[in-house]
Amino acid sequence: MADSLTDYEELAAAVLPSAVRDFVAGGSGFETTLHLNRAAFDSVTLTPRVLGGITSVDTTWQSFSGASMPVVVAPMAYQRLLHPEGELLLARAAADAGIPYTISTLSSYPLEKIAGTGPSWFQLYWLRDRLLMESLVDRAEAAGCTALMVTVDVPVMGRRLRDVRNSFALPPDVVAANLVDAATEAHVGVPGLSAVAAHTASAFEPAVSWQDLEWLRSRTQLPLLVKGILDPRDAVRAVEIGAAGIVVSNHGGRQLDGAVASIDALPAVVDAAGKHCQVLVDSGVRSGTDVLRALALGASAVLVGRPLLWALAVDACAEGLGLLRKELEDAMLLAGCADLAAAGRLTTGRI
To answer: Residue ranges of the FMN hydroxy acid dehydrogenase domain (predicted)?
Structure first.
């Protein structure tokens, strides 16, 4: 039994192989941005309001398909590395919690099987094979996904030194189930190399442009969210091509090492685009207080990633999401916020 969402990392460490722990926990380069994400969240202070007569809070988020709280399960690859049921178990927990689950292009179960468990979004990496991309979009629509999230910050995979040093490769029973080349170089360990990085290098298209994003916008009727934006100028461009949402994200510190912390980039992106689309944020969210911090800085909602993978590893997804909800409700009560709109009006500062 955990007391907070952060407890699951230690619990998972007792049951996972060290290379899998490193694959989930690690960042790129010297992991500067990985650590900066947490430091930036911890530096945000909130000024609570008092005497509001509040005895309960409304955490309901109305955007896109709607949710019981402003939380979305982030897209994360190869979840069968952590539990045999992988994505299916975490998606069911998200459905029971009343929040969207984002299916990764690199999920280890087919997207149709995951989407059948509850409200789902689909995350799309830009692939060299455009026909395969079109097929994935069609499949996501047919499976009932209610939003399409395109990740734009991976022209190449960041150099993740833990995986390089571990010569990390996927076990035979964990595959990229949505891709036709499920049995790939991702399973072939080579000393001093990451097999997962080798696979993405062969599958992902590095030369993606705004024109490509315009094509994708024209290709689907689903609301389009653009994930991986940190510069407000890019946020403006995303709005111009018709994005319904922006995810302010540095990929959890796994892409450009030295990139700005997502929570630090959030306010400028909100100022640039927030009146025209929903602005979400990820990278470093570890508690209900972090969710409240993000809302106070202008976010519509947050994406939560690693903590839920650690919970998945110990078969505690539902418990973890329940703890996150309790933490958010407590934080809102203590801050004097009856609803999300009030949370967005809180005054913030910096330590």
So the answer is: 1-351
Residue 103's contacts (CB-CB under 8 Å, 6 or more residues apart) are 75, 87, 91, 111, 114, 115, 120, 121, 122, 123, 140, 145
User: Nearest 10 degrees: CA dihedral of 46, 50, 53, 59?
Assistant: 0
- The fourth-level CATH superfamily of domain 7-46+57-340 is Aldolase class I (3.20.20.70)
Q: Specify burial of residue 299 (Cβ count, 10 A radius: 0-12, 13-18, 19+).
A: buried
Q: Which helix (H) or strand (E) holds 245?
A: strand 245-248
Closest of 340, 259, 253 to residue 70, by C-alpha: 340
Residue 1, CA atoms < 13 Å, CB-side half-sphere: 1
Domains of the chain, by residue range, sit at: 7-46+57-340
Amino acid residing at 266:
L
Q: Which of 282, 104, 285 is nearest to 178 (CA)?
A: 104
The sign of the dihedral angle between the CA atoms of 37, 38, 44, 46 is positive
Backbone angles phi and psi of 41, in degrees to 5 = -60, -45
Residue 238, number of CB atoms within 10 A of its CB? 27
- Give the pLDDT of the chain (351 residues) as one tens digit per residue: 799 999 999 999 999 999 999 999 999 999 999 999 999 999 999 999 999 999 999 999 998 878 999 999 999 999 999 999 999 999 999 999 999 999 999 999 999 999 988 899 999 999 999 999 999 999 999 999 999 999 999 999 999 999 999 999 999 999 999 997 655 788 888 899 999 999 999 999 999 999 999 999 999 999 999 999 999 999 999 999 999 999 999 999 999 999 999 999 999 999 999 889 999 999 999 999 999 999 999 999 999 999 999 999 999 999 999 999 999 999 999 999 999 999 999 999 999
End-to-end Cα distance, the chain: 32
Helices (H) and strands (E) counted in the chain, each on its own, are: 15, 10
Alpha-carbon distance of 91 to 86, in angstroms, equals: 9
DSSP assignment, residue 314?
Answer: T
Residue from 161, 157, 159, 168 nearest 17 by CA = 168
Does the active-site annotation cover 35?
Answer: no
Give me the phi and psi of 117, to 5 degrees please. Answer: -85, -15
